[in-house]
C-alpha cells in the first residue's frame, strides 16, 4: 500500500502524529472508495425496491460525505506540508462540470434532485485535481441543503472564470456569508461546523494566481434558485 | 441520431483492455463499459498478461488499475508498453486509481497516461470521461496517426490547421506543435509557440518548453535561471529538475547538478532513470556514498522495470567494493557482504552471460583482497586466468576492470601489460585512453585516491601562495600513495625547480627532479601530460651542469 507521505523523521522513536493521521486517513479513504463502489453496484441490482431507497440514499450520501471529507483532510495535510502546488492547465469547462455531475448522478437520481449545468463554451485555467476536491465537497453540501434543485454554472466575469454551485434551500446563515480568503487561524473548532471545507476551497482558490491577481471564494444567497450560492473565482 | 446513441456507437467501434488484479473490479468495469456501448472488451489480471495481450493484439483503450498487487504496478505497464512501442499514440491509456496522490501522479509523469479515473467510478462518470476522451481522440486522430508514422512535417501542418478548428484542444495542439518543432530542430518556431502561450499567461509546460529551447541554443545561463524559477514556483514539477540538472551539467557545475537531482528524488523517489542519472553524477563528483545509495535504489526499482540492467548491479557492486576497501569498521564488512550477495543475485537474474560472470568474479577478487583474504583472492584470479581471461577479446569496460583488479592484488606488471595492449586496441578511442590513463595514474583504492587528490590540491594551494616547501611536502606525500601519477610528478618537478633559486644545495634538488622524470620515462605520446613532460625534461637538461 502506498502511503500519503514518507516518514521524514530521523528520530524513529518520535511519533509524527500528523503523519500517522494522514496515513490512517489515506487508508480510510481508500476503504470508503471500495464501499462506494459496492453501493453503486448494489443500487444497480436493487432497482425498484422503493421501500429501502431512502435508507439507501442516506447510506450513500453519508459515505460520499465522509469520502469527500477525507480527501479534503489529505489535501489540507499536504497543503500544510507544502506538498501542494497548483498545476494550472487549460480545460474545457463544460466537460469538467459534466464529469462532476456524473460522479453524483446515481445519488441525485436516488434523491430525486434535479441538477443542471449552465456553462458557457469556454476554456479555463486551473488545477483539475484541486478543483475536483472543491466541487465534490460543494456539491455534496448543496445536496444536503437543497429542496429539489441544484444548478452548476460557469461564466467569464471581470476577467475571472467563475464556477458556481446554487441550490434552492434555506441559504447560508448571515455569519457564513462572506467573500475573500479564509485563514486557518480564523477557523472555530468549537462550533458545530468547522468550515474546514470552506478553508480548503479558499486555500485552493488562493493557489490560483495570474500576475497580481489571486483566486477567491464568495458565499451569498439568492441566485436563480433563491438558495445558497457558492462561487469560486479563478484568475 | 440522438447524442447518447451517437456516443454509444463511438464506444462500440473500439477495442478495450481492462487491467485489474481484482476480478470483481474487472467484471464491474466491463459491465459499465458494455452499458456505455462498448463491445470488444478483454481483461488481464496481471501486468504480464496485459503486456502479452498488447504484444499480439491491437488495443484502442487501456483501462489499467494503478495498484496491481505484488510486482509490477500500472506505471510499469505503461512504461513498458510505451518503451516497446506496443501502444500507438492514437490509443488511449487511462490509469485507474484509488487516489490521486501527487507522488503517484509525479512518478507517472515520465510516461504520461492520457487520463486518470479516480475510484469509485460509476457508469455515468465512465461514460462522460471516456466519452470526452474518445471524442478528443477522434478529433486528433489524423495528427496522432502521422505521429505514429513519424511523419512530423505533416503532423505540424495538421496541428496548424486544427488550431482554429478545435479551440477546446488548444493546449494539446500547442504542446504537440512546440514539441514537434523542437524535435525537428526548428528552434525559432518552437520558441515562438512557447512564447505565445506565455504571453497569454504563465503556464509551466510553456516555461519548460522555452527553457528547453534555451538549452538547445546553448544559452545555459538563462535556461538555468528560468528553470530555477519554475522549480521555486512548482516544487513538484519533475521535468524541470531533470532539465535544470542537464543545464548545470553543461555549465560544468556537476555538484549543483547532483544536488538538483537529489532534491528531485526526494519528491519523486520511484523514477529509475533519474536515480541512475543521479548515481552517475555522484560518481563523477567522487561522492561515492551518494552514488552507492542511488545505485542501490536503481537496482531496487529495476526489479519490475523494463529499464532493468545488469550494469546497475555491477555499478552498485563496484561502489560497495570501493567503499569497503580500507574500511576496518563494521560498515566495511557489511558492504563487502552486500556486494557479494548482489553479485550472486545478478547471476540468477541475468544467467549465462560469460562476460558478466567474468566481471562478477573480478569484483569478487577485489572484495576478498579488500577484506584481507589475499590467498582466496589470488586463487579466484588464477581461475579467471585459466578460463581464458587474457584480455585480448574483452570489452574495454571488462579489461579496465581486470586491470584494476590486477593492481589491487599486487600484480602491477601484469596490469600494465594488459592496459598497454588495451591502449593499442583502442588507439583511436579517446574516452577509453583517458580511462586507461586515469587507472595508471591512480591504481589504488578509492580512499587512497581521495587522500592523494586532497594532498595534490593542498600542494597547488601552497604553491600559489608562495609556500614552496609546504608544496613540496604535500606533493611528495601524495606521490607516496600514487608514485606513477604523471601530473603529480610534474607538479613536484616544477616546484623543486623554482625552489632551487633559494636553496644553497641545488644539485640534490635536481637529482630529485631527475628521479621524478625517470618514473615517467614510459609516458605514451597521447597522454595529456606528455607535452608538459617533454618541456620540463628539456628545462632540466639546461639546468644540469
TrEMBL record, chain A:
Top-level taxon of origin: Bacteria
Record domain Histidine kinase: where: 23-235
UniProt keyword annotations, A-Z: ATP-binding, Nucleotide-binding, Phosphoprotein
Gene Ontology molecular function, alphabetical: ATP binding
One Pfam family in the UniProt entry: HATPase_c
Keyword Nucleotide-binding among UniProt keywords: yes
Listed name of the protein: ATP-binding protein
Automatic annotation (TrEMBL), chain B:
InterPro entries per record: CheY-like_superfamily, Sig_transdc_resp-reg_receiver, ST_Response_Regulator, TPR-like_helical_dom_sf, TPR_rpt
Domain Response regulatory: 15-134
Cross-referenced Pfam families: Response_reg, TPR_16, TPR_19
Protein's UniProt keywords contain Phosphoprotein: yes
UniProt keyword list: Phosphoprotein, TPR repeat
Start-end of each TPR repeat: 171-204, 452-485
Superkingdom classification of source: Bacteria
Modified residues (4-aspartylphosphate): 65
Protein name in UniProt: Response regulator
Species the sequence originates in: Marinobacter qingdaonensis
Amino acid at each position: 500500500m502506498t502511503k500519503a507521505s514518507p516518514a521524514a523523521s530521523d528520530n524513529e522513536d518520535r511519533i509524527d502524529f500528523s503523519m500517522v493521521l494522514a496515513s490512517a486517513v489515506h487508508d480510510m479513504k481508500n476503504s470508503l472508495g471500495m464501499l462506494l463502489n459496492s453501493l453503486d453496484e448494489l443500487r444497480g441490482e436493487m432497482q425498484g425496491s422503493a421501500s429501502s431507497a431512502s435508507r439507501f440514499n442516506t447510506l450513500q450520501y453519508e459515505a460520499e460525505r465522509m469520502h469527500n471529507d477525507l480527501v479534503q483532510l489529505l489535501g489540507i495535510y499536504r497543503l500544510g506540508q507544502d506538498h501542494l502546488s497548483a498545476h494550472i492547465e487549460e480545460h474545457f469547462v463544460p466537460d469538467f462540470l459534466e464529469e462532476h455531475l456524473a460522479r453524483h448522478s446515481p445519488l441525485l437520481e436516488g434523491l430525486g434532485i434535479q441538477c443542471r449545468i449552465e456553462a458557457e463554451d469556454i476554456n479555463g485555467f486551473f488545477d483539475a485535481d484541486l478543483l475536483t476536491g472543491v466541487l465534490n465537497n460543494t456539491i455534496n453540501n448543496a445536496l444536503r441543503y437543497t429542496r429539489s434543485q441544484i444548478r452548476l454554472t460557469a461564466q467569464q466575469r471581470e476577467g475571472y472564470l467563475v464556477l458556481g454551485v446554487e441550490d434552492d434551500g434555506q441559504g447560508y446563515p448571515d455569519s457564513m456569508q462572506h467573500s475573500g480568503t479564509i485563514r486557518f487561524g480564523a477557523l472555530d473548532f468549537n462550533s458545530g461546523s468547522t468550515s474546514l471545507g470552506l478553508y480548503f476551497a479558499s486555500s485552493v482558490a488562493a493557489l490560483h494566481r495570474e500576475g497580481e491577481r489571486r483566486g477567491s471564494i464568495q458565499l451569498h444567497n439568492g441566485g436563480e434558485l433563491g438558495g445558497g450560492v457558492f462561487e469560486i473565482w479563478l484568475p | 441520431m440522438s447524442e447518447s446513441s451517437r456516443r454509444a456507437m463511438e464506444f462500440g467501434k473500439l477495442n478495450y483492455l481492462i487491467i485489474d488484479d481484482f476480478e470483481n473490479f474487472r467484471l464491474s468495469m466491463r459491465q459499465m463499459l458494455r452499458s456505455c456501448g462498448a463491445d470488444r472488451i478483454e481483461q488481464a489480471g496481471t501486468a504480464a498478461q496485459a503486456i502479452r495481450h498488447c504484444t499480439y493484439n491491437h488495443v484502442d483503450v487501456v483501462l489499467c488499475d494503478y495498484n496491481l498487487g505484488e510486482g509490477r504496478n500500472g506505471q510499469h505497464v505503461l512504461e513498458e508498453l510505451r518503451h516497446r512501442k506496443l501502444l500507438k499514440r492514437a490509443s488511449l491509456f487511462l490509469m485507474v486509481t484509488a487516489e490521486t496522490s501527487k507522488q503517484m501522479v509525479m512518478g507517472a509523469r515520465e510516461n504520461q497516461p492520457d487520463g486518470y479515473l479516480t475510484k469509485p467510478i460509476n457508469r455515468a462518470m465512465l461514460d462522460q470521461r471516456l466519452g470526452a476522451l474518445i471524442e478528443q481522440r477522434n478529433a486528433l486522430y489524423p495528427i496522432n496517426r502521422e505521429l505514429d508514422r513519424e511523419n512530423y512535417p505533416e503532423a505540424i501542418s495538421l496541428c496548424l490547421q486544427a488550431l482554429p478548428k478545435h479551440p477546446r484542444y488548444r493546449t494539446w495542439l500547442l504542446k504537440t506543435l512546440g514539441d514537434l518543432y523542437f524535435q525537428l530542430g526548428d528552434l525559432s518556431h518552437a520558441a515562438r509557440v512557447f512564447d505565445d502561450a506565455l504571453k497569454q499567461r504563465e503556464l509551466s509546460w510553456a516555461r519548460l518548453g522555452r527553457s528547453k529551447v534555451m538549452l538547445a541554443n546553448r544559452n545555459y545561463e538563462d535556461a538555468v535561471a528560468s528553470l530555477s524559477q519554475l522549480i521555486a514556483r512548482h516544487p513538484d514539477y519533475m521535468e524541470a529538475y531533470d532539465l535544470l540538472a542537464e543545464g548545470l551539467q553543461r555549465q560544468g557545475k556537476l555538484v549543483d547538478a547532483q544536488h538538483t537531482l537529489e532534491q528531485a528524488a526526494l519528491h519523486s523517489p520511484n523514477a529509475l532513470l533519474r536515480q541512475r542519472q543521479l548515481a552517475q553524477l555522484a560518481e563523477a563528483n567522487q561522492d561515492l556514498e551518494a552514488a552507492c545509495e542511488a545505485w542501490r535504489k536503481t537496482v531496487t526499482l529495476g526489479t519490475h522495470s523494463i529499464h532493468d540492467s545488469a550494469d546497475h548491479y555491477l555499478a552498485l557492486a563496484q561502489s560497495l567494493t570501493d567503499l569497503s576497501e580500507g574500511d576496518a569498521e563494521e560498515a566495511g564488512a557489511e558492504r563487502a557482504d552486500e556486494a557479494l550477495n548482489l553479485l550472486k543475485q545478478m547471476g540468477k537474474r541475468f544467467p549465462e552471460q560469460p562476460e558478466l560472470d567474468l566481471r562478477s568474479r573480478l569484483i569478487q577478487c577485489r572484495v576478498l583482497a579488500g577484506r584481507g583474504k589475499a590467498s582466496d583472492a589470488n586463487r579466484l584470479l588464477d581461475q579467471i586466468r585459466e578460463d581464458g581471461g587474457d584480455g585480448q577479446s574483452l570489452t574495454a569496460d571488462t579489461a579496465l576492470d581486470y586491470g584494476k583488479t590486477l593492481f589491487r592484488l599486487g600484480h602491477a606488471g601484469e596490469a600494465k601489460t594488459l592496459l598497454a595492449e588495451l591502449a593499442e586496441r583502442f588507439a583511436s578511442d579517446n574516452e577509453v585512453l583517458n580511462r586507461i590513463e586515469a587507472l595508471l595514474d591512480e591504481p589504488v583504492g578509492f580512499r587512497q585516491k581521495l587522500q592523494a587528490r586532497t594532498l595534490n590540491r593542498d600542494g597547488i594551494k601552497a604553491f600559489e601562495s608562495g609556500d614552496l616547501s609546504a608544496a613540496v611536502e604535500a606533493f611528495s606525500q601524495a606521490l607516496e600513495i600514487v608514485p606513477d601519477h604523471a601530473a603529480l610528478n610534474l607538479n613536484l618537478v616544477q616546484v623543486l625547480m623554482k625552489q632551487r633559486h633559494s636553496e644553497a644545495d641545488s644539485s640534490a634538488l635536481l637529482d630529485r627532479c631527475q628521479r621524478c622524470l625517470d618514473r615517467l620515462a614510459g609516458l605514451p605520446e597521447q597522454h595529456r601530460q606528455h607535452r608538459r613532460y617533454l618541456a620540463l625534461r628539456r628545462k632540466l637538461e639546461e639546468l644540469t651542469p
